[in-house]
């Protein structure tokens, strides 16, 4: 990458069902994320977005395993590390905000206890120091009366406040990488905007790398620098936000953008994508989007297209662009 240091490098990452290696969930996923950069991961439900986050964090369920690939965090390949070494990195060097804070926070522990636990374990602070720092963290995520909120249980807080608590926990040990998995899913539009503004502000202040997972392209347009489009566990397209919105190359990216409501349009019906994301164990041969693609060709159902460059920072996995172009590596980092 150019102009920024790499915090996270994922190369050839593949996961599959533990007893059925041929049934892949993620397949050959590669990208790089730099310090101070926001990478948006988009795709429909079932595209593998959350599975990618859990794989990077080392939190895969027992029924799924990583079969190949490298996950380099600050230069260390976590894929070659022990589970104990991976655990030491979580919270300290990388952290994650989960989709639903009500089920992610412990319902029988006070908010302050949950924040202070991270501070004691990851930053080795005393009880008094961790309490003071927890108040500072709640102030940082703009929760009013922070000292009083530390004594609250999760069910006593609104959805927006619970999400802010999750952000405070994630930031407690000053991670270099923050993964936010659908951080505004259960929130109304006003609170959603506040949470996104907060995340962007905190990211700019700390210089951390932010990987934002969402199905909402409006969120991507507002906060991300680059975008990676996932479909059925494979990378369909990577580009800057401006490039993706102005000149999407993959038919799936084009279909996603076409489905966004347009107030200026006179259409009677919203655009939709026929069909559904294929399930694990029932993936089609060749391009996984081919059964739903309006631009499908004979070659699409024969072999799987590889991610190839349209420009140094724009890659697409679609045969229609490369009938006579030799393969070349795609630059996965930021050009900033």
Question: Explain this structure to me?
Answer:
The protein is an alpha/beta fold. The chain has a domain of 73 residues. 31% of the residues lie in helices and 23% in strands. It has an eight-stranded mixed sheet, sandwiched between helices. A four-stranded antiparallel sheet has the order 2-1-4-5, covered by helices on one side. The radius of gyration is 21 Å and the shape is globular.
Structure in a nutshell:
With 336 residues, the protein is of the alpha/beta class. The chain has helices at residues 49-57, 83-89, 101-104, 111-123, 127-140, 146-149, 159-171, 189-206, 217-223, 241-246, 251-258; strands at residues 6-17, 20-34, 38-42, 64-73, 76-77, 94-97, 177-181, 209-213, 226-231, 234-240, 308-311, 314-316.
Our Rg estimate from Cα atoms comes to: 21 Å
Instruction: Look at the helices and sheets and give the structural class.
Output: alpha/beta
Q: How far is the first residue's CA from the last residue's CA?
A: 9 Å
Number of helices: 11
Q: Give the overall shape, derived from the CA principal axes.
A: globular
DSSP strand (E) fraction? 15-25%
Give average pLDDT, whole number: 89
């Amino acid at each position: 990458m150019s102009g920024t240091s790499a915090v996270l490098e994922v190369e050839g990452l593949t996961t599959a069902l533990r007893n059925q290696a041929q049934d892949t969930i993620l397949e050959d996923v590669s990208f790089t994320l730099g310090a101070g950069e926001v990478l948006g991961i988009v795709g429909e439900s079932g595209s593998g977005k959350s599975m990618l986050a859990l794989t990077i964090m080392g939190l895969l369920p027992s029924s799924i395993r990583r079969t190949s690939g490298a996950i380099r965090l600050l230069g260390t390949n976590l894929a070659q590390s022990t589970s104990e070494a991976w655990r030491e990195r979580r919270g300290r060097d990388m952290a994650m905000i989960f989709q639903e804070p009500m089920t992610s926070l412990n319902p029988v522990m006070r908010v302050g206890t949950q924040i202070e636990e991270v501070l004691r374990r990851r930053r080795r602070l005393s009880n008094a120091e961790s309490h003071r720092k927890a108040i500072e963290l709640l102030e940082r995520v703009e929760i009013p009366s922070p000292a009083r909120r530390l004594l609250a249980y999760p069910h006593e807080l609104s959805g927006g406040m619970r999400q802010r608590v999750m952000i405070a926990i994630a930031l407690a040990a000053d991670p270099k990488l923050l993964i936010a998995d659908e951080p505004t899913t259960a929130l109304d539009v006003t609170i959603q905007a506040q949470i996104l503004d907060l995340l962007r502000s905190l990211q700019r202040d700390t210089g951390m790398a932010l990987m934002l997972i969402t199905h909402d392209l409006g969120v991507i347009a507002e906060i991300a620098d680059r975008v990676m489009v996932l479909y059925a566990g494979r990378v369909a397209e990577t580009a800057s936000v401006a490039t993706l919105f102005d000149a999407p190359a993959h038919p799936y990216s084009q279909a996603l953008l076409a489905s966004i409501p347009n107030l200026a349009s006179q259409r009677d019906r919203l655009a939709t994508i026929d069909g559904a994301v294929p399930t694990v164990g029932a993936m089609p041969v060749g391009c996984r989007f081919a059964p739903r693609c309006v631009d499908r060709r004979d070659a699409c159902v024969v072999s799987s297209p590889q991610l190839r460059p349209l420009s140094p920072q724009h890659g697409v996995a679609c045969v229609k662009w490369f009938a006579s172009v030799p393969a070349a590596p795609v630059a996965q980092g930021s050009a900033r």
